[in-house]
Structure formats: structure tokens, C-alpha cells
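Question (not urgent): is this output format expected?
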Amino acid sequence: MKYKRDELSARLTNIQQDFCAESPVDDVLFTVAHQTKIELHEVKKIIDEIEHGSFGYCQTCKLPIEAESLSKNPFETSCNKCKSAN
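Got this back:
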């Protein structure tokens, strides 16, 4: 995750430099920058959860999220039981 964080930070820096050049694709750059910021925020959140021992636990019932669910989507915040209940 730290590698992903560094990769996203570098991508965001490059996008910000491209904004300074004022190109006709500014709308595209804005969209990419916005998506990158969202993903970077999520990655930083996961790193924080890992460091504090709370990664992989359902936000609703506080039980562990199934490993298969986390391997498919490391941003998963609910276990299968709680997802199906909603």
C-alpha cells in the first residue's frame, strides 16, 4: 500500500505540473487529478488502518471481513453478512 501511495502522489504531482502548462485537455486532467486524490485518500486510510490494527474489520459489526472479499477489493469496509443485510 505504501508503494501505491507513493505512486499516486507522484501521479498527482505530474498532473499538477501539467495544469501549469495550460493545455486544451485541462478538463481531462482535472478529472484524472480528482480520481487520483480520491484513490490516494483511500490508500492512506488503509495504511493508517494497517498501522493501527483495524484493517480488515467490518465497520458495522466489527468482525473480520472475509479474506476473499479483501483480496478482491482491499477497500472493502463490510463483511458479507452485513452487506447482505443492507
